Amino acid sequence: MPGYRTRQLVVRIGGHDFQIRALSDLQQFSDPHRFAERLGISSAQWSLFGQVWPSGRVLAEAMCTVEIGHRRILEIGCGLGLSSLVLQRRGADITASDQHPLARSFLARNSRLNGLESVPYQDLHWAIPHETLGRFDLLVGSDILYERDHIDLLAGVLDRHANARAQIIFTDPGRGNSAPFTRALAAQGYNVSEVRSRFNESDLPPFRGRLLSYQR
């Protein structure tokens, strides 16, 4: 037994049903070898990667129509990999990344559940440069501006891995960190456009959630 419980969800995105293996609830925790602890992932944070969040759904819907062409795409903080699965189904050149010790195995399982080849995956620790990851044309992520100190860390990741004409698409549920993040990216030459979005059926306008697109 892995020490945690899972469930299988059907998530409908862009008119297609995706089978997703997720943790059964937010109370799940198993870190017997202290891998997560050494990465700075607390017991309270451990289960967050294993849920399908509203921000992830909004990003996945956006990935149904985003231009892929020959662009090299990176999902940052992929969690269960829903957006990466959407892009893999479309035939995109997608690489998923996260730092949670179980993200790789859950992504591989979810690829198989949907009859897809495994999405290429890289461990990406934001504070540690990844010497071989390279640069990307499109970088995407959902609800990764979770804490204020993530702003500088994430801006550093983008500086290292976005090419000169990259596009960045993030979804943010309105945690209050998107404005200072936008200022940090402006210093790297990015302009932003944002669309206020409904993240839950109970949301009422003006929506707090945002679909943020940065371009330089």
TrEMBL record:
The keyword Methyltransferase applies. Keywords: Methyltransferase, Transferase. GO terms for molecular function: methyltransferase activity. It holds the Pfam family Methyltransf_16. InterPro entries: Methyltransf_16, SAM-dependent_MTases_sf. One of its GO terms (biological process) is methylation. It comes from the Bacteria. This is Lysine methyltransferase.
